[in-house]
Amino acid sequence: MEQNPKKDNTKVILIIVIVALLGVIAYLLMQNNKQTEVIKVKEEKIQVDSLAISAKVKELEDLQLAYERIKQDREAMGLSNDSLNAEITRLNDYMVKVRRGDQRKIKELDAMIAKMKADVDIKDQELAALRSENDTLKTNIVVLKKENLVMNDTISSLNQKKTELQEKVEIASILRAENIRLVVINRKGKEVDKEEFKSKLVDKVRVEFNLGDNRVARKDRKKIYFRLIQPDGSVLYDLATGGGFFNAESKEIPFTLKQELEFDNSKQRMTFVYVKGSPYKIGNHTIEIYHEGNKIGESSLIVK
């Protein structure tokens, strides 16, 4: 029985088509495998790049913290942070752009990190130098305070000694009335030199004395005051006859007579003559001599 040639040709064509399809499928599978490998490699690279970028971003964050630390240290030392604040602002803007995937900024990461690390190192060195200077200044201040305390103590001691010396000089410069002599002159003008005097006989009272040797007292004009105190404690004084008041014993006290002289430390002799003009009271009258508020001599007049 004869085969149909047309039918055989159809089978051959069908087989060829199937083989071709299988070849195409095999090629597509092979290409797909290659593409898959390429994608896998790219994904791995992207992952590696992403990890590298994350690590660099972490470095930037660490540098950001370093800048904040430096800022706080500078503020604690009272230093200005204007330029540092500007750098921190630029860094924050840069990090925002990196996180958004700005490729230009990402490509600059290595250079940016290197620059910032160098800047942080410089600023840390500056802070270390400033701390050292500050510590030196604190030490100097402590030393100066101690020296100041010692100096103040020395000054206080010197002032005290000066005050004591001034007091000694003031005491030493007080004049002294020496060789006091009391003479009573009666109404006839005759001098009566006794220990006691009758009231009706006393017309004038004369007091004579020398200013004692004093090399400390200044040689200048001195005011010498004469006080005649009655038995009842009242002081005889009359503004019309030369009496008045002067400061002594932290108050104003009356005086009977006053004289002035140029003191030359020659044991000058002084004389006071007082005329009461009325009878003296019976009893002991006290005579006092004063200079610059200090009593420099004393005597007495007994009236009976």
Number of strands: 11
Distance between the termini: 204 Å
* CATH homologous superfamily title of the largest domain: Macroglobulin (MG2) domain
Overall pLDDT score: 85
| CATH class wording of the largest domain | Mainly Beta
Percentage of residues in DSSP E strands = 15-25%
Overview features:
304 residues, alpha+beta, Immunoglobulin-like, 4-stranded antiparallel sheet, 24% strand, rod-shaped
Describe it for me?
There is one protein chain. The protein is of the alpha+beta class and 304 residues long. It folds into 2 domains: 121 residues, no CATH class; 127 residues, Immunoglobulin-like, CATH 2.60.40.1930. Helix content is 52%, strand content 24%. The protein is built from 4 helices and 11 strands, in the order ααααβββββββββββ. It has a 5-stranded mixed sheet, with no helix packed on it. α1 packs antiparallel against α2 and α1 runs parallel beside α4. It is rod-shaped, with a radius of gyration of 60 Å.
Topology:
Layout: H1 5-76, H2 82-99, H3 103-107, H4 109-172, E1 177-185, E2 191-192, E3 196-197, E4 204-211, E5 221-229, E6 244-248, E7 251-255, E8 257-262, E9 269-275, E10 283-291, E11 294-303
Parallel strand pairs: 3-11
Antiparallel strand pairs: 1-2, 1-4, 4-9, 5-8, 5-10, 6-7, 10-11
Helix pairs in contact: 1-2, 1-4
Brief write-up:
The protein is of the alpha+beta class and 304 residues long.
